[in-house]
Inverse folding.
């Protein structure tokens, strides 16, 4: 036998080399964990909400426990009144009691008699039906006349007709909600055996992590995974215990992992799984228990650096650091195991079929998950890829679901009919679909629609992507800001038949710099650029090819390529951030963005942000609501306050 340390390093070596398929990794993980005994506990009904039943529950009694009247009226023998009618009333003598709820009858209903009975009252001996009070008339003080034919069993709920004694009431694995609690209470059950929720410890790793609520220092980011994973554990039957973020320090991390695992059934870490020098968690796992690492590296995208381990019977997982990757791998690979440990059935996700309007490139050899937003096309659902890369978090909130691209495919061609797994039980098609270039001003206009209960989906694909979607009739409006070099005008030259222009607002573009910078303070745009070019220490930040702003920058530079020219971010905000953070000294962005971060601003030219409206969709209520909102005083005032100039 190999000594322990050697055995471990051989194991690690192997893990480092071998990337498992999604199916192999999951199968290995489950095989190391199951079968296992699911711990159970007895809970009072009042504390059972959200728990999973550990055993089938059989009804101990009949519900209702006796034959019961459904109406206020009279308990009768149906044979007595089988032939009654408006023209032939039947007279019945009244027995000397009234049966209320909770009153046990004492007198028998003999032929030719009736007993007054309230809704919920137990049927007396001899009676087999109830006549509604509305279908009778008093006949003196001790008799009634019945004017309606009555059949056996009329207005009677028989004992056990709701729940029969011995019937399987609820199945093991059912999550107890208010309806289940109602059924249990109706049977008189005060306590249930439920699966004890697995306690799952959550640790985020990374020197850069700060908890939400705390101030963010330079180069820090907020611990997003901690919050995501904690919530996802609770959503899937676990009880999450958050241990915050631990720095990338082997001694501290090992102590934190041991402490967390001691009181938990499972440990979920995130970050530090890339096989770089700072990545320690997987090394520590090797020392925590047997058999240790099952998979380190799974052919998933996002999510390749996922690490799955079992340490002395407890699952220990390291999710990738990027929040979207962490979320996908958690849902795809960890949730099935967590649910089994929690005594829950596998999650059943709703699926729909939808057409993909654009080609989606995919990495060969990895099962790829792509988040999509669903919109209604002409006669089918359209699934827009909404991912912004595995580092992005908003894509999750805006997506309706995801589609999967097989490991053996290197792309999904445009026009593919794909199966979309929904994040929600049903497709929610938005009332208004806006596809194109995003602007923070848009949110100020759509706020009114949201207040009116209309759902708005805004998909940011850039001006040209929006125009293409509008031409295909996949959106109501495409926000665009496209400059036409030849006519030196915005937007109108880009419209085609079926589209019309709705003026939006103007955005002043100009040079941004840090306030107090003498090279830029108080001078015009041309002089500012001249001063920047004259100073070899001055660094600029550019924009991406194709951006309207880029055309302006290139004109100003007149062919010069100063330091920073190749730094070409894709958004106005990124330009402002680069200057504010001293990575660059000047760049070009729009006034509202410059002012929001407190930068100096030299105005240069106005950009027109307008909407290409799909004429065929003009009369849809949500479109009309949008056009009204756009013209409303409130929205115009809000746009002006934010630094835009409504058209
Ligand atoms: P790592 O695997 O630690 O190299 O992390 C990969 C990326 O994910 C880095 O950009 C990290 O800053 C980021 N990251 C790691 N953990 C978290 C977290 N808890 N919340 C948000 N981002 C994270
Ligand atoms: Mg890290």
């Amino acid at each position: 036998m190999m000594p322990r340390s050697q055995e471990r390093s051989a194991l690690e070596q192997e893990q480092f080399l071998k990337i498992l398929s999604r199916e192999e990794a999951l199968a290995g993980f489950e095989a190391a964990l199951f079968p296992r005994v699911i711990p159970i506990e007895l809970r009072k009904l009042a504390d059972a909400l959200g728990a999973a039943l550990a055993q089938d529950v059989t009804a101990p009694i009949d519900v209702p426990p006796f034959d019961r009247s459904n109406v206020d009226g009279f308990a009768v023998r149906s044979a007595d009144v089988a032939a009654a009618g408006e023209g032939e009333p039947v007279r019945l003598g009244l027995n000397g009691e009234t049966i209320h709820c909770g009153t046990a009858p004492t007198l028998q209903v003999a032929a030719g008699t009736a007993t007054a009975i309230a809704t919920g009252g137990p049927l007396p001996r001899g009676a087999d039906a109830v006549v509604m009070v509305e279908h009778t008339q008093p006949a003196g003080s001790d008799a009634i006349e019945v004017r309606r034919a009555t059949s056996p069993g009329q207005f009677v709920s028989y004992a056990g007709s709701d729940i029969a004694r011995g019937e399987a009431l609820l199945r093991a694995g059912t999550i107890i909600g208010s309806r289940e609690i109602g059924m249990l209470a109706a049977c008189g059950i005060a306590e249930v055996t439920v699966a004890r929720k697995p306690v799952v410890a959550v640790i985020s790793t990374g020197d850069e992590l700060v908890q939400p609520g705390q101030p963010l220092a330079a180069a820090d980011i907020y611990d997003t995974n901690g919050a995501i994973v904690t919530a996802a554990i609770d959503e899937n039957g676990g009880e999450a215990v958050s241990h915050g973020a631990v720095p990338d320090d082997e001694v501290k991390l090992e102590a934190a992992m041991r402490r967390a695992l001691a009181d938990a059934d499972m440990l979920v870490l995130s970050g530090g799984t890339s096989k770089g020098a700072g990545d320690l968690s997987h090394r520590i796992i090797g020392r925590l228990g047997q058999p240790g690492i099952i998979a380190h590296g799974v052919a998933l995208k996002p999510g390749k650096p996922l690490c799955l381990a079992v340490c002395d019977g407890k699952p220990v997982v390291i999710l990738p650091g990027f929040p979207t990757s962490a979320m996908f791998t958690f849902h795809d690979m960890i949730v099935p195991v967590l649910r089994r440990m929690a005594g829950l059935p596998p999650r059943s996700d709703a699926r729909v079929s939808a057409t993909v309007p654009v080609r989606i490139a995919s990495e060969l050899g990895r099962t790829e998950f792509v988040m999509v937003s669903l919109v209604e096309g002409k006669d089918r659902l359209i699934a827009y890829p909404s991912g912004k890369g595995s580092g992005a978090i908003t894509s999750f909130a805006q997506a309706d679901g995801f589609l999967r691209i097989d490991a053996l495919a290197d792309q999904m061609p445009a026009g593919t009919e794909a199966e979309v797994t929904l994040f929600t039980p049903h497709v929610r098609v938005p009332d208004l679909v806006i596809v194109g270039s995003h602007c923070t001003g848009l949110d100020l206009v759509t706020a009114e629609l949201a207040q009116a209960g209309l759902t708005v989906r805004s998909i940011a694909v850039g001006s040209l992507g929006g125009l293409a979607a509008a031409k295909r009739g996949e959106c109501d409006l495409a926000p665009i800001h496209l400059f036409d070099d030849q006519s030196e005008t915005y937007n109108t030259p880009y419209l085609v038949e079926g589209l019309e222009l709705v003026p939006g607002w103007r955005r002043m573009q100009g040079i941004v710099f840090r306030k107090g910078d003498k090279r830029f303070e108080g001078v015009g745009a041309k002089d500012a650029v001249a001063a920047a070019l004259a100073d070899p220490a001055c660094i600029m930040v550019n924009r991406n090819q194709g951006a309207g702003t880029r055309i302006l920058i290139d004109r100003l530079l007149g062919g010069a390529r100063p330091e920073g020219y190749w730094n070409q971010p894709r958004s106005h905000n990124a330009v402002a951030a680069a200057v504010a953070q001293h990575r660059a000294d000047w760049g070009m962005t729009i006034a509202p963005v410059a002012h929001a971060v407190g930068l100096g601003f030299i105005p240069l030219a106005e950009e027109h942000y307008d909407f290409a409206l799909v004429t065929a969709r003009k009369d849809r209520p949500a479109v009309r609501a949008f056009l009204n909102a756009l013209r409303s005083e409130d929205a115009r005032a809000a746009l002006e306050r934010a630094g835009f100039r409504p058209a």
